[in-house]
Specification:
It is a single chain. About 15% of the residues are buried. It contains 3 helices and 5 strands; from the N terminus they run βαβαββαβ. The strands form 2 sheets. A 3-stranded parallel β-sheet has the order 1-5-2, sandwiched between helices. Strands 3-4 form a two-stranded antiparallel ribbon. The chain is an alpha/beta fold and about 110 residues long. Helices cover about 35% and strands about 30% of the residues.
Amino acid sequence: MKARIILLNGVGSAGKSSIAKALQTITAEPFLHVQMDTFIAMLPDAMQDHADGFSYETIQRDGKPSVVIRTGPVGARTLRAMRHAIAAMAGHGNNLIVDRKGRAAESAPI
């Protein structure tokens, strides 16, 4: 069975999780909901807002506050592992809804 992946991309509080839950309700086949935040939350608190994990800086962009997320080596390793985990789940035939933050302001690909 070939898995299908639905990618929901957007900023925090945009409604990605609500959309994922609605999709799970209406799809004929089961879809697992995979959230990027779950992988980031696996890091110890000490790696949150730390140069080696993920660091966050609020900047002004076009007169509006925006958050720049910088990824250090531990954070980058976590995100690489997340991509491999998603690929492994799909490789075993699991349909997935992947909920990830938008990356326009990020310094490293996700």
